[in-house]
Amino acid sequence: MASIGFIGLGNMGGPMVKNLIKAGHGVRAFDVVTDATARARDEGAEIAGSAADAVSNCEIVITMLPAGEHVRSVYLEDDKVMDAAETGALLIDCSTIDIETARAMIGAADTRGFEMIDAPVSGGIGGATAGTLTFMCGGSDTAFARARPVLETMGKNIFHAGGAGAGQSAKV
């Protein structure tokens, strides 16, 4: 099973983490909301002190954040997750954000030698809790192939919509 750094433990991210742990993955998680981190700890996640710390020594990084500005901040600006992530880590952004930011993040990841997909979800809190989310994925074929097994622990319908930003386009 994979070691996963998970950032964003809100209404969707929290249940997603629970399903990852239930499937046997090791999860190091972070959120700015302490109640959310306490719930994740109760489910068995290791809690990190920062987003950058959450991704150290992890094979996969998953983010579930409110908006494009938060995704950009976490990956490149304030938290600099792309600087802290392990060489070769797979980056999966499950946030529903604007297509331009999704493409920019995948481009930045590619420049730094990471594979990344945009994988927004559909199915709501009920789907996140039940592990029946739909993931609409954009990115390279190889990144999608790497992401699919972990996405299958959180969802029932996982499809590759095309290149960078195509997951966001499909969701729109």
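Second entry:
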Amino acid sequence: MANIETPKARKEYVCSKCGTNIKVGEEYVKGTPFRMKPIIRCKACGLRDWELSSSDYIQAVGRVCDCWQEDYGTEEDTAQSIADELSTIRDDLQDRYDNLPENFQYSENGEMMQERIDNLESAISDLENIDYECIKETVLGDYDDYDSLTDEGKEEVEENIKGNLTDEIESALSCLEY
């Protein structure tokens, strides 16, 4: 099991993500993956459990679920972009499952792989069913005349659209365990 701690530096370190110098006495994040060299990060970059996993699946799905806003933003095609990335992960996992000998497919690990594939398919389906235009129309329906809104009012509408889109995407991804 991986372990994450936040000690104070007794010597200088360099963050493995952003390259920031961590000075003596500063808190930093240290993650120790099983039987691997520790990962050192500054407090700003932090470290997530999935980054310490030796499982390609957990790392890939964890990155998608935790970093989708950084990677894709909240645009009209965001849900489809995430679905495409998850489809690639699902296809790789399906290939690995299909190449298992039949007796291993019915083992605990094989069943876990099939469950992950099913969960990915569910998330992909939910993401593909997100309709940006419908979200936009729903939010705009709360306003009488969008064109007469001030710039601040239009900004509020855009934030509401992005917030609703975010909620829909988070809901679609919630079935994925990592």
